[in-house]
Amino acid sequence: MYLSQEEKEKIFTKHGKSKTDTGSAEGQIALFTYRIAHLTNHLKANHKDYNTERSLVMLVGKRRSLLDYLMKKDILRYRAIIKELGLRK
Fold first, then answer.
1. Angle at the Cα of 78 (from 75 to 80), degrees rounded to 5?
2. N or C, where is the chain less crowded by C-beta within 10 Å?
3. Which ranges in 1-89 belong to alpha helices (H)?
4. pTM attached to this predicted model
5. Spans in the chain with pLDDT lower than 70
6. Is the four-CA dihedral 86, 26, 12, 18 of positive or negative sign?
């Protein structure tokens, strides 16, 4: 699989509070961003894979809703995660 346990722990250690803190909004947003990048690269090579395209759109929506939640809850954490991940908004 493209996402091993070690890579997940690395993502959550970097963006969450610890490697076992999988529920924080920052950790989930970082994980979704990693998965979105992987699916985007897959779709560049396989442009007719509509199931993956649908999964990508749903994943982007989940990330957007988490970012909206974080913006309402704590604007400083929102700005920090946007800057760290290099997202546009």
1. 110
2. N
3. 5-15, 25-45, 50-73, 75-85
4. 0.91
5. 1, 89
6. positive
Asked whether 56 and 78 are in contact (CB, 8 A), the reply is: no
Torsion angle, alpha carbons of 55, 56, 58, 64, to 10: 160
Residue for token pair 């924080």: 24
Q: What are phi and psi of 12, to 5 degrees?
A: -70, -30
Paired tokens of 53: 């395209």
* Cβ neighbourhood burial of 24 (10 Å; 0-12, 13-18, 19+): middle
Q: In sequence order, what are the residues at sequence separation of 6 or more whose Cβ sits closer than 8 angstroms to the Cβ of residue 54?
A: none
